[in-house]
Amino acid sequence: MAELYVKPGNKERGWNDPPQFSYGLQTQAGGPKRTPLTKRVAAPQDGAPRVPTSETSPEAPPMGPLPPSSMASRPPPVGSRPASTVDSTDFPVIECETLLEDVLRPLEQALEDCRGHTKKQVCDDISRRLVLLQEQWAEGKLSIPVKKRMALLVQELSSNQWDAADDIHRSLMVDHVTEVSQWMVGVKRLIAEKRSLSSEEEANEKKSAATVEENQTKPGVQQDP
Q1: Angle, helices 120-138/100-114, rounded to nearest 10 degrees
Q2: Verdict on whether the full-model pTM lies above 0.90
Q3: What is the pLDDT of residue 85?
Q4: Is 36 a residue whose pLDDT tops 90?
Q5: How many CB atoms lie within 10 A of CB 118?
Q6: Long-range contacts made by residues 172-176, C-beta under 8 angstroms, separation at least 24?
């Protein structure tokens, strides 16, 4: 069989020279074909490099659930309490509810006192503002700080402390303007009208007292029999 792949002998070669094999005869004989080592292998379509099965590492065994942490298993220290219970028990917050009637009734009474001494148009506008105050209070649109300050304002207004009532009005306009802007204008006007009425009444009382005193001390005044 080997003689088929050997070229005919060359007369110029020596008897001990190695024979020359014919590459063409080997290919024609249909021997096993081998892939040349210099030939490149096409890359896979998905773009991921192929790893021979022999080089892949064996799959890692599935891991079970992690052991519970030592911190979770430790009991809480003696005497400690959750933050929620500390906040709720150590610092109780007690809110005193301010009633709408306690605020609205003195304001309406002050408005009635001003009627007859103030223009009707002004009194009607103040009345509409007080209705807005009542509606927003009943609908829960007013915060607790606003309700508390209004209660203080009414107390100062009933005690004829005009400056203190006006200061509370200004603080509400600065700190809670979005809540009180629709009706606080009427409360401000009511404070001003009530102050003017009080000043006018005081002036009339002083004038009347002075007139009576003058009549009593004036000589030559004869009384009718």
Answers
A1: 180
A2: no
A3: 44
A4: no
A5: 19
A6: 172/146, 175/145, 176/143, 176/145, 176/146
Q: Is 173 exposed, middle or buried (0-12, 13-18, 19+ CB in 10 A)?
A: middle
Distance CA 172, CA 181 (A): 9
Quote the CA–CA distance of 221 and 94 in Å, as a whole number.
Answer: 68
pLDDT for 97: 74
Tokens of residue 85, six digits: 């219970």
- How does pLDDT run across 110-161, given as a tens digit for each residue? 999 999 888 999 999 999 999 999 999 999 999 999 999 999 999 999 999 9
Other beta carbons within 10 angstroms of residue 6's beta carbon come to 12
Q: What is the torsion angle, in degrees rounded to the nearest 10, for the CA atoms of residue 73, residue 79, residue 81 and residue 83?
A: -110
CA distance 86 to 93: 13
DSSP the chain: -GGGGBPPPPTTS-TTSPPPBPHHHHHHTTPPP---TTPPPPPPTTSPPP--TTTSPPPPPPP-PPPPPHHHHSPPPTT---HHHHHHHHS-----PPPHHHHHHHHHHHHHHHBTTB-HHHHHHHHHHHHHHHHHHHTT-S-HHHHHHHHHHHHHHHTT-HHHHHHHHHHHHHHSHHHHTTTHHHHHHHHHHHHHHHHHHHHHHHHHHHHHHHHHH-TTPPPP-
